[in-house]
Each structure stands twice: as structure tokens, then as C-alpha cells.
Write a structure and sequence with these properties.
The complex is a heterodimer of chains A (260) and B (77).
Chain A lengths: L2 H11 L5 E3 L17 H16 L5 E5 L14 E4 L5 H11 L4 E7 H7 L1 H10 L4 E6 L2 E2 L5 E2 L18 H4 L5 H6 L4 E8 L3 H19 L4 E7 L3 H4 L3 H15 L3 E5 L1
Parallel strand pairs in A: 2-3, 2-4, 4-5, 5-9, 8-9
Antiparallel strand pairs in A: 6-7, 8-10
Helix pairs in contact in A: 2-8, 4-5
Chain B lengths: L1 E9 L9 H5 L5 E7 L5 E5 L10 H5 L5 E9 L2
The chains are: A alpha/beta (260), B mainly beta (77).
Bound molecules: thiamine diphosphate (TPP), iron/sulfur cluster (3 copies) and magnesium ion.
Pfam families (chain B): Fer4_7 (PF12838)
Protein name (chain B): Ferredoxin
Keywords (chain B): 4Fe-4S, Iron, Iron-sulfur, Metal-binding
Chain lengths: 260, 77
């Protein structure tokens, strides 16, 4: 195409009525500190989109974890509370009980939710606290330098198991989401991913459902997102997505465990 | 016959050159530039603009919300 006619075509397409996708207004202009290609960014993005689409920016309160997403209150323009490592479900419980009319979610990594915070996680779900728990499972402690997490796969390398996780010494990887599905307090328990456009759309749908459940006071909605930590895994973002599909999904299968 | 033509705009300065959009595009529109942005990343751009169908797959996987997508239906003669 000629330069001129191409510019013409572009101008013709680039009109408000032809807009298909633009950045959510619930996201701030701060550039996220995450490594290039990190799953955290994708999940933040669709979370902001869901909050915008449901028109609940004024009444949603997030509880930020300790982990790479510790600064996420800088990126999504809602009310936030920072929790100590693993304690987000306890803080979420308090918010939920003080302000039952608000929408409350926690956002936690696997180290946060499934290691140091296991007790808080299980008891909040068992009580059926009316909140959403978003669980970013990248199989590693991303923030602190890629140490082994409870979710690290058998044979998977990390800085504290450089030859691969050996269950006889290191214990077995924990499927905490399957465990949480057994508890009477949970209503929606699902495992999703954000490695392809279709997967992103599905995770967004699960989020919409979880927000709807909160409005209907159905108890705890748990959404696990099997994620990548390309820096910790020492792969490119594209390689990480492939590795995740090949290695994480067989052990952490995607799908709904509970939808009541 | 009608055809969808698309256009993406990449926010060059916030792009981190992760390449996830390149991988997600069904019609191989996007590539990473030889040049780098202010942060030193090879940013994404439309190498084959004619092939864009405005499906928004690229914007779906972008962790940094850098991509704006437009789509228009045109009648082919
Ligand atoms: C009480 C306490 N113990 C330990 C730490 C150190 N620490 C910070 S982040 C982290 C683990 C983060 O891993 P994860 O929750 O999986 O989040 P990711 O960075 O992978 O997203 C640990 C152990 C801390 N900040 N506070
Ligand atoms: S260390 Fe891992 S989890 Fe943390 S920002 Fe980088 S890629 Fe993401
Ligand atoms: S809108 Fe679709 S076709 Fe166009 S660049 Fe993005 S992924 Fe490719
Ligand atoms: S997905 Fe986003 S950040 Fe990554 S290369 Fe494409 S535009 Fe840049
Ligand atoms: Mg982690």
C-alpha cells in the first residue's frame, strides 16, 4: 500500500465508533513494575475491566498481598488495604464484616495464599466469608528471588531446589484449590489461566461470576489463575506460557471444581 | 462481500517488548521493532498492517494494556 493511502485508511478506521479495545479507565497511568510478560499484569487488567463493566469502582475494596503484587494498589483505582504476608483473608474478613455492602477481594500469590497464609485461607473459606479470593499460582516465590513454593511441581527447578523438587526431601506440591472446593463455605471454585486470548476471556468470565456471587452473598469465590513467573523460571515470556501449558496444566488442570 | 479491517495502536513508551502480542496474533501483524523505547525495550509495532482483522487478541494478552484496537467493516468490490 502507498504511504498516503495507508494513512488515509488508518484515519478512516481510527474513529471512536470503530473502537474495539482500549485500556480500562479503572487502571491508573502508573507503569506496572512487573517483569515484561508477567501474568500479574494480565490479571490486573481484566480485574480492572470487570470492575469498570460492573460499575462497582466506588464500592470495591481490594486487599493486596506480600509478593510481587505488593504494590498493586498503585495500579487499580479503587480502595485498598495492604495485608501482612498471608493475612489477606483475615483482613478481607474484617472489611466484609464491617462493610457488608462492599465488594471485597483478596489478591494473593501461591507463597502468600498456600504457604504462610494457609490457615487464614482455609478458615476464611470454611467460614464462607463473603469475598473473592484471587489466587495467582506461578509455582514459585517470585518476589524474593524464585524460591520453592508449596505449589512448585515435582522435578521443577527453583533457587532453593536447583536440581528440581524432590518430594522425599521437599514434600509434595499442594493442590490447595481442590482442597478449598471441599469446604462448605466456598460457592465458586475454579482454576483458570491467562496464556491465550481465549483463556483470558474465560478468566474474565469467572471473575464476573465471582463478583455476581458476592452481590448475592453466596460466600467465598476462589479463582486460581495458573500463571507464569518468567524471571523466576528463567525463560522468555512466550516460552513460559508454553512450559506452563505442558507442565503445570497436567498437575493443575483448568476448569470449575464447584459452582453453586 | 464485506471484510473486517483492523488497526492497532501500541503505546510505545509503556510497551515492554514481551512478545506475547506477537505470539497471539492470528495473522502475524505484529513484530518487535529494531529500535528501543525510553526504557530500552524493543517495542511492538504493526509490521503487516494490511493483515490486521481487529480481533483484539493482542490486546487480550498484553500485561501492560499498551494496545488500542479499532475495527471496521468494509465492502469489497
Ligand atoms: C512475614 C513475612 N515472611 C516472609 C516474607 C518474605 N516474602 C516476601 S514475598 C514472599 C513470597 C512471595 O511469593 P508469592 O506469594 O508466590 O508471590 P509472587 O511474588 O510469586 O507473586 C516471601 C516469602 C515477608 N515479606 N513477610
Ligand atoms: S519476578 Fe516473576 S512474578 Fe514477579 S514480576 Fe517478575 S515475572 Fe512476575
Ligand atoms: S487485532 Fe488481531 S489481527 Fe490485529 S494485530 Fe491484534 S491480534 Fe493481530
Ligand atoms: S504484549 Fe504488550 S507489552 Fe508485550 S510486546 Fe505486546 S504491546 Fe508490548
Ligand atoms: Mg508465586
Amino acid at each position: 500500500m502507498e504511504e498516503n493511502s495507508m494513512a488515509e485508511v488508518f484515519n478512516d478506521i481510527k474513529k471512536p465508533e470503530n473502537l474495539v479495545y482500549s485500556k480500562s479507565k479503572v487502571l491508573t497511568d502508573n507503569v506496572m513494575h512487573y517483569c515484561p510478560g508477567c501474568s500479574h499484569g494480565v490479571v490486573h487488567r481484566i480485574l480492572a475491566e470487570v470492575i469498570e463493566e460492573l460499575g462497582v469502582q466506588d464500592k470495591t475494596i481490594g486487599v493486596a498481598p506480600v509478593g510481587c503484587s505488593v504494590l498493586m494498589y498503585n495500579y487499580i483505582d479503587i480502595d485498598w488495604q495492604e495485608a501482612a504476608h498471608g493475612r489477606a483473608p483475615a483482613v478481607g474478613t474484617a472489611i466484609n464484616r464491617l462493610w457488608p455492602e462492599k465488594i471485597v477481594f483478596t489478591y494473593q500469590g501461591d507463597g502468600d495464599l498456600a504457604a504462610i497464609g494457609t490457615a487464614e485461607t482455609i478458615h476464611a473459606c470454611n467460614r464462607g466469608e463473603n469475598m473473592i479470593m484471587l489466587f495467582i499460582n506461578n509455582g514459585i516465590y517470585g518476589m524474593t528471588g524464585g524460591q520453592m513454593a508449596p505449589t512448585t511441581l515435582k522435578g521443577m527447578k527453583s533457587s532453593t531446589c536447583p536440581f528440581g523438587r524432590e518430594p522425599a526431601q521437599d514434600g509434595n506440591p499442594l493442590k490447595i484449590t481442590e482442597l478449598l472446593a471441599q469446604l462448605p463455605g466456598t460457592s465458586l471454585v475454579t482454576r483458570q489461566a491467562v496464556h491465550t486470548p481465549a483463556a483470558v476471556r474465560k478468566t474474565k468470565k469467572a471473575l464476573l461470576k465471582a463478583f455476581e456471587n458476592q452481590k448475592q452473598k453466596k460466600g467465598t469465590s476462589v479463582i486460581e489463575v495458573v500463571s507464569t513467573c518468567n524471571s523466576g523460571w528463567k525463560m522468555t515470556p512466550v516460552e513460559s506460557n508454553k512450559w506452563m501449558a505442558e507442565n503445570m496444566f497436567p498437575f493443575y488442570p483448568l476448569g470449575d471444581f464447584k459452582d453453586e | 462481500m464485506a471484510k473486517m479491517i483492523g488497526l492497532i495502536e501500541v503505546d510505545i513508551e509503556t510497551c515492554k517488548g514481551c512478545s506475547l502480542c506477537v505470539e497471539a496474533c492470528p495473522t502475524s501483524v505484529i513484530e518487535l521493532a529494531e529500535e528501543v523505547n525510553g526504557k530500552g525495550y524493543n517495542y511492538a509495532y504493526m509490521e503487516n498492517p494490511d493483515a490486521c482483522i481487529g480481533c483484539a487478541n493482542c490486546s487480550m494478552v498484553c500485561p501492560d494494556s499498551c494496545i488500542t484496537v479499532y475495527r471496521k467493516k468494509v465492502e469489497m468490490v
